[in-house]
Amino acid sequence: MGRKRLSEKERQAYLEGLKRYHRKGIPIYIDDEELAESEWDRIFEIQEDGSFYMSDYVGADTGKLEEIRFDKVKYK
User: Fold this and answer.
1) Which top-rank group of organisms is this from (predicted)?
2) What's the rounded Cα separation, in Å, for the pair 38 and 60?
C-alpha cells in the first residue's frame, strides 16, 4: 500500500486548519511538546526508517475537542 504525499497547497490548507483550532485555544502537541507554528510542518515528514506522524484528536468527556497530538509512528 503506497503513501500519498500531499501537495504544497494541501499542506498549507491543513496547517491553516490547525492554526484555526490553535487560535480557539486548542493546544497542538508534536512529540509531546507545544512547538511554534513555524515548526508544525514537520508533521508531513517521512523519515528514512519509515516513521511518520499520526494525528490524534483528543476529546474531553463532554465531547469537546481538548487537544490535537501528533506522535511519530513506524510504518511496517
Assistant:
1) Bacteria
2) 27
Cα→Cα distances 41→18, 67, 76, Å: 11, 18, 23
Q: Distances from the Cα of 40 to the Cαs of 3, 19, 25, in angstroms?
A: 20, 10, 16
In a domain, 64, yes or no: yes
Number of domains in the chain: 1
C-alpha cell at 65: 475537542
Q: Catalogue the E-assigned strands of the chain.
A: 28-30, 51-59, 65-74
Domain membership flag for residue 21: no
Q: Tell me, what DSSP letter sits at residue 38?
A: G
- 6-54 residue pLDDT tens: 899 999 999 999 999 999 999 999 999 999 999 999 999 888 888 999 9
Domain of 50 in residue numbering reads as 27-76
